[in-house]
Sequence to fold (1532 residues):
Amino acid sequence: MRKVCIIITTRGNYAKLKSIIKAIHNDDDLELQLIMGGGAILERYGNITNELSLKGIRICKLIHFLIEGEIPVTMAKSAGVALSEFATAFEDLKPDVVITIADRFECLPITIAACYMNIPVAHIEGGEVSGSIDESIRHSISKLAHLHFPATKSAAERIKRLGEPEGTIFNVGCTSLDVLNDLNLNDKNVILKTMRDKGVGPSINIEDDYLVVIQHPVTTEYAKNLTHVNQTIKAIDQLKIKAFWLWPNMDAGSDGVSKGIRMYREEKHPDFVHFFKSLPIEEFGPLLYNSKCIVGNSSSGIREASFLGVPSVNIGTRQDGRERADNVIDVDYDEKQIKDTICSQVSIGRFEPSYLYGAGRASQKVTETLKIFDFKIQKRITY
Amino acid sequence: MRKVCIIITTRGNYAKLKSIIKAIHNDDDLELQLIMGGGAILERYGNITNELSLKGIRICKLIHFLIEGEIPVTMAKSAGVALSEFATAFEDLKPDVVITIADRFECLPITIAACYMNIPVAHIEGGEVSGSIDESIRHSISKLAHLHFPATKSAAERIKRLGEPEGTIFNVGCTSLDVLNDLNLNDKNVILKTMRDKGVGPSINIEDDYLVVIQHPVTTEYAKNLTHVNQTIKAIDQLKIKAFWLWPNMDAGSDGVSKGIRMYREEKHPDFVHFFKSLPIEEFGPLLYNSKCIVGNSSSGIREASFLGVPSVNIGTRQDGRERADNVIDVDYDEKQIKDTICSQVSIGRFEPSYLYGAGRASQKVTETLKIFDFKIQKRITY
Amino acid sequence: MRKVCIIITTRGNYAKLKSIIKAIHNDDDLELQLIMGGGAILERYGNITNELSLKGIRICKLIHFLIEGEIPVTMAKSAGVALSEFATAFEDLKPDVVITIADRFECLPITIAACYMNIPVAHIEGGEVSGSIDESIRHSISKLAHLHFPATKSAAERIKRLGEPEGTIFNVGCTSLDVLNDLNLNDKNVILKTMRDKGVGPSINIEDDYLVVIQHPVTTEYAKNLTHVNQTIKAIDQLKIKAFWLWPNMDAGSDGVSKGIRMYREEKHPDFVHFFKSLPIEEFGPLLYNSKCIVGNSSSGIREASFLGVPSVNIGTRQDGRERADNVIDVDYDEKQIKDTICSQVSIGRFEPSYLYGAGRASQKVTETLKIFDFKIQKRITY
Amino acid sequence: MRKVCIIITTRGNYAKLKSIIKAIHNDDDLELQLIMGGGAILERYGNITNELSLKGIRICKLIHFLIEGEIPVTMAKSAGVALSEFATAFEDLKPDVVITIADRFECLPITIAACYMNIPVAHIEGGEVSGSIDESIRHSISKLAHLHFPATKSAAERIKRLGEPEGTIFNVGCTSLDVLNDLNLNDKNVILKTMRDKGVGPSINIEDDYLVVIQHPVTTEYAKNLTHVNQTIKAIDQLKIKAFWLWPNMDAGSDGVSKGIRMYREEKHPDFVHFFKSLPIEEFGPLLYNSKCIVGNSSSGIREASFLGVPSVNIGTRQDGRERADNVIDVDYDEKQIKDTICSQVSIGRFEPSYLYGAGRASQKVTETLKIFDFKIQKRITY
Fold:
């Protein structure tokens, strides 16, 4: 029975891996080895270990690897700690395959730990194009991974052009859409309950138009993240449309973004913005679906929003190069552009759902492939 | 004045970077920041710090990152330590560009440390194809690096196909050939002196035919390295042609290779083999040039040997996919094949020099490019 | 000229070392090597690097060693990172003596790094008795240190009984009192400015009676810190005396304490409590001096408060065994006891100043000793 | 059932813990958690994992923590890695008590890991006096440990004077003598077999007089270890009495000692010295018992030799302060003194056995105490 090691280091990862975890957990032919670490097990980023335990899923290891600081040098050092700690975990668990995902800074060292220990790696969501250091990390992981589960046709094509053998690439669609498929997105009670239980700031009347705002730091624009988020803050503050604002990921630069948000909250006490640390996809799904527009630079504005037909205003470089459906309009770090584009997007209203990132059936395809795939540990570029 | 950080972690790296170090050291427009670490500063792998100090080159940092063990898990952990330690060093030195080389296991984490800290990386000898984990590491580094100095035309072409912008790729040839160009390779006194001063085993009459043998571990064949080297040992032992045998690199699996060699030495006390830990290129150059054949799986059998026209018997998978000139014949881990091919190669004698890996003028091109290249820290795949 | 390496890892350390830093900085016979790290350079614990830079003191190294989590296993791992990182720093700086202080979890590994590298260690504030893991850490450091600067006569006596040679022990008094000696403690404008610029919560009328509250986690009571702090919170909440509450140190368990405070703030929005992350001693001094009572388990309630004659209610086990002047009354983690004792202390009013912890002239004695002390790197117990 | 975690990091540790491991393994009321790491699992220091596996004892974790280099900075860094790695292991194994031993550099960080995680520590062989950094480490561990098993009466007395509560101190004697008690020390066939199977150098006629030589580095005399061992080498070389020479421990400075021995071997090829990497106590016991004298600075010359009545020449400072029976004569690092003293010791012949270090019944006492001891995690100095 193949032992599949899945690693969750952020809530974002969890949203993407949740359907696969469930599928493997329920499959008699695969053994799930779940490792949690990083922000996913820290209170201040919204610890999610309880959510899993509640579902009866055993967590094999908790791995702390984040060196406090959220600056470039601590990002590098955290990556070093992750590499070393995951090596220990893999030595203990001896998985047959390690699942790694997308492009966060810890995913590359985790991949290296597995590769150096001759453990095959399956990579989810490779082959896309974006900004930030994520762009380099994603392709670098592709060149280490032995099996690829891209989310779009053009991502699959790109992995092939990177010299990966065609038989190792499976376009399965975006795994986070699986969860959306299972939700009753119209149920506004979920939103009301979430707002009651979580976050800070005023209660929002969700029958009114509202926005969802998520702005993450861009590591390659490290010094400017505070300036950049302030443009968004000013736009939102002037529009006075109700908004749910989600806290940024913990990356080099998140300090700058957080500072902007914190100062805004403490100085202006906006009575039309409710702030969340982070939300599970089950709560985020209905919140996004019923919003008038998503604003910021989260990949949710590109993927989930297009699948749900929600208008999206994408700010700055973080998603540069990522494929977009018609619901997305790109703007600069510019208060006026952001404001005007939000207005026009809100006035347009809901788009047709797009299947650019698949139809929400990824987990089954991933699971079936993991069972039978014939891994070759020695890689070779195809050209 | 640009600060160029060069990192030496093995004698092999040193041979390749020596000409560039010298060129930068002598250039008024560049500041050299030399870091040494890993095996390059350990006695048991042939510490080379003195060689540099003697030349008046200041070593900025000595970095110890090798966790003893030489097994896959310690390779991964050493990589983690390297990532963390080099981050500290870069934070201190604040280089404008970091030079990383080829495909050793520590080069990938060193590259990551620089990238995560938004320091541009120039990669030497990318784009080639080989076996072992090196194959994955090399291409993975290419997808992180900002500037590429491949050693062959087809390597340059391959980096381009990996999606790196054409203007970032400069085919400069193999940097280790620069040093060979400056040597008097006919001077056999160098060999005599080296044999007198270094290594263990009998004195060899170098007027007789002799072989050079170097067999490194293959990390992806971790458990079989002892068996594999024993095939070579048996072939050499039966041929009884004089031989200089160089100790393997320190990688996961080197324990197996070392054990084979050590047992052979202690049990058979061969009176026709002289063993060296490792040699500087100035001593290795004449030794190789005057030999009848190089045997094993070192890249020297592919690069330096072709430039010098020395016949080469390449064993096993380690150099799989790497471009070869006519002087190389590939064989399996098979005692008889190895033996027979050595015989036929020795009987053929010297080949015409090949310029497949350049003409030994790499360092000047590298230095000139480093001075003026316009680094873009945000990478983007070209397709 | 002796190179003296001083390490600051928390604001508390800084308060204690400030006068010594200044003295060494101004001394022509000593060279100051200042390293800052841990919570002292993190925004969320009140980064103090700027305060130093403003004074023209060069910071040689910034060292990040805190693995996020604030649970026992991350405390241990952070200690491991500290040990390794400080070794790197010492290798670079080559100090003639390292100053280490008191009993925080990082001070022991820092001491070990120096000792293992044959660098003499001078220990400030050894020999005292307390609760928590601090008790073990403090004496363990004494057995590694080469020179001792205890703060009281009985602490000096205790170090001698630990088998340290009499000639290595100098009772200099508590170094943090030096700074108090230089302040105009009556100047209430300092308090007003601090309240205006820092912290959250309502503005407090400082002409009214007010308390200062500081409750740190006790690592050896790891699981109970939330319960314990809640007793204090209830007492304060019922008393409704105005209060300034300082956030806890970052130790295993601080998460529990923080959670208690955060929940209190967010649920009750007390209009008589102003919260500070942490304060420099120059601002903390007047705040404490003008308060009616200090409450909690900070050592300030024992040392600074006795020197200033401020009544103190010391809660729980953290300061167990530490010498007290008459101003201190000990209570259990018990809401009623805490409440009643605060009332009686407030009604008593200011005490006579005590010189139990010295007279605020420590830094000069320390500096003079550092200049001439004849360090013996080989230690030997005296019995 | 109490889970007792025992850690072996060197062959020396193993010899001392072997009888306790066996006793716990066979006890139904205790669960053995065996961790091996450091030199004990490395081939080049004589990997001993197989010896344990052969006895049916399960090894829970293998921990690699040695950063190559064997210089002070790598000793410190290895300690840092050990602290972090053992924290991971303890988090996984959740022992009820951790057994730590004596005074090696890794034992202090291992103790810290346990203490910081609120796991009680039992310390074997504390309270003795010696030279090197070991002296500081040993007492520092005593101040962290919760239960003490010293090997002599005066060591027990010293721990008490260090302020440890009397009820936590149990003088059990030296644990390594337990194994000697179980051996047939007269059986010279063991020596013959060992010499046949292990080590390098000529076969020695053990009916002749022979010496046992073991010289470890002294970390606090880091730069002089080569010079010091050369005095011993010259003495042995001139005496021409047959000798078995055991390789040094791996500490900062072992490089110097090893170099001296290696150079002697390679230059002089002495035909009367047989060299061993290291030996299990079962083989070392008869070798020592039948020798005429033990020479060097190993603690075996003090403990085991006195119990067996073998004359001992103790060189230099490493054992300074350790209690001696009449069989020991101390000499300086001085060729002539060493030579003369060996001669006189050999001529004296066997001494009466001494019970200074107990009678070889330690393991039973340790095991019984571990079962019932009432651990208090909060320590408090007794004065």
Remarks:
- The longest helix of chain B spans residues 72-93.
